[in-house]
Amino acid sequence: FADIREFTSLSEKMTSKENFSFLNNYLKRMEPVVDSHGGFVDKYIGDGIMLFFGDPETEGVREDALKCVNMALEMLKELDNLGDQWVRYGLKEQLQMRIGIDTGFATVGNFGCESRLDYTAIGSAVNKASRLEEAAENGSIYISEDTYNLVKESIEAVELDPIYLKGLGNFKPFKVLKSVDSSSVTLELGE
Q1: What CA–CA distance (Å, rounded) separates 96 from 40?
Q2: In a 3-state reduction of DSSP, which class is residue 101?
């Protein structure tokens, strides 16, 4: 899960047309990043993006997790690259994104009813990723211990104090600092 921190209050200062243009511009820049890493955009929820790896295609759990973390780092960089465009929407400060990632099993398929089906993922891993995103600091990526254990050889991350995740209890997250995987571009979060 990824979303722009405090976007709701920012959007209140924009006209509907500006809001529409802003979101489309932002999402148009994020989707190619997701695609280039093999992710699947499940849905847009306002400024939020729900996406997953491993379906319809997978390269294995570890590789999918690593691609997801590298994609998240690139999404943060892409948001920074858009900084000069935000001025036209009256934004004075650089926007910040927060991202939550978990690795686990999910049920993926068409959910809904005959008149309206939605191809999506549901399950505990989806809930954890959503809660991690909500808990993440501005401009940061929080990953679960399950994800960390899969990618720890290829990234630099710090273990954070346990946090309370609504509906899940206390949870130990890791904050991603940078990718050190030699098979991918080295991406690093700014201080």
Answers
A1: 22
A2: strand
